[in-house]
Design goal:
Strand content: 5-15%
Distance between the termini: 30 Å
Radius of gyration: 19 Å
Mean pLDDT: 92
Low-confidence stretches: none
Number of helices: 2
Number of strands: 2
Largest sheet: 2 strands, antiparallel
Strand order of the largest sheet: 1-2
Helix content: over 70%
Amino acid sequence: MEKLIARINELARKQKTVGLTEEETLERAELRRQYLDNFKRNFRVQLDSITVVDNDDSVKH
């Protein structure tokens, strides 16, 4: 994940300075998709592990 973020940031810096080639633009889009897929998957795991406890100590999933 760290390598993915580092490459996304590297491409972002390059975009701001000299611009990206078509290949780099496609790579950036794919890396962003991978990052978001990972984020969504990890967030879903967190949400699935949450247990709500009411004031009367009843557990709801």
